[in-house]
């Protein structure tokens, strides 16, 4: 049976793009029947394309870019990645999203993956996992396996 998955993400420095493309390769190796649609929301904005309604199970990947501070008392305002939130809000696309995976730099302490937690709260879906920068092979395998297991329950 062929399953479908949309991976909606935004990549500004290439780290998230690197991770999701490695994840797609992992899926090809693990389960060749999985049909994956990658959506970099930054491309939609750059190309002045209209947002569209998601039609299949979706997972979101989001790096953290916050405005200064420590992420708790100050500096918890999302910057640069807002288009992903706009895309998920469009026609209730977030209802097709079964969760989000956050990324960031652990050097930023409490801000690490804070944006993913903010999206989780805003859209009422879980933060499924997190990874640092471009992630490791172990991150790819762990997150890939978790996504495959989630898809089997949808």
From TrEMBL:
InterPro entries: Flavoprotein-like_sf (IPR029039), RNR_NrdI (IPR004465). Transmembrane segments: none annotated. It holds the Pfam family Flavodoxin_NdrI. One of its GO terms (molecular function) is FMN binding. NCBIfam families: PRK02551.1. This is NrdI protein.
